[in-house]
Amino acid sequence: MLTLYDHPRSGNCYKVRLFLSLIGLPCRREFVDVLARKNQTEEFERISAWRQVPAIEDDGLAIWDSHAILLYLAQKHAPQWLAPLPHAAQMHAWISVSTNEIANSLQPLRLTRVVSHAEAAHHLGVSEALLDLAGLQRRTDRVLALMEKRLTGHDWLAVVLSLADIDCYGYLALAEEAGIDMAFYPGLSAWRRRIERLPGYVTPGHTA
Asked: What's the confidence (pLDDT) of residue 206?
């Protein structure tokens, strides 16, 4: 059985748990206490080269990085989640938005709200004095505004439901924890509700 190295508060771990549930693939979850630095060991580095969660082990293969994990799982178990041409390029472009724009705005902004600033700075690899909260808020506002514009005219990010929606949803599901009022984003909110109606959907706090 596939093993998922997991932390329950991580949006990146959540998107993997969510996708596994959507495709009906069971896994064994291994809790990694990142706040206690249990990921910062040579043993865990053999599973995750950057000592990050999530990571998986599947048939002796270790894979780290949530985006790589999602693509691997879709290619092996659920190719219907890979958008066909001509939408495949848009799917990969929106996955890139998750890896870059969301990862450098909403994701760290939320982190500063759910852990101490000192802990957030540690995970972001900066000193606490260099935490730019105003800058994170500005970048988050821009990302959300652009996603809102996209989803005002489309049900799904790549026109068809695809892996890109799950990849971007991981931290959009947690937007309120970053202090975001989603009432200002009706298109994004409707998109979130569409995902929440998918068979197999689980909430971020689901532990089964």
From this structure: 60
Say if CB 96 and CB 167 are below 8 A apart: no
Tokens at 112, concatenated = 């500063």
Assign 208 a pLDDT band (cuts: 50, 70, 90). Answer: very low
120 vs 145, higher pLDDT: 145
Rounded to the nearest 5 percent, the helix, strand and coil shares of the chain are 55, 10, 35
Tokens representing 10 are 């991580």
Q: Residue 7 half-sphere exposure, CB side, CA atoms within 13 Å?
A: 17
Q: Report yes or no: 168 and 97 within 8 Å, Cβ to Cβ.
A: yes
CB–CB of 16/56 below 8 Å? Answer: yes
Peptide bond connecting 204 to the previous residue in cis, omega within 30 degrees of 0: no
Q: Distance (Å, rounded) from C-alpha 139 to C-alpha 162?
A: 25
State the amino acid at position 27 in one-letter form: C
Q: How far is CA 192 from CA 2, 38, 63, 110, 151, in A?
A: 28, 33, 28, 18, 10
**4-18, 38-52, 64-78, 145-159: the lowest-pLDDT one:** 38-52
- DSSP 8-state assignment for residue 131: -
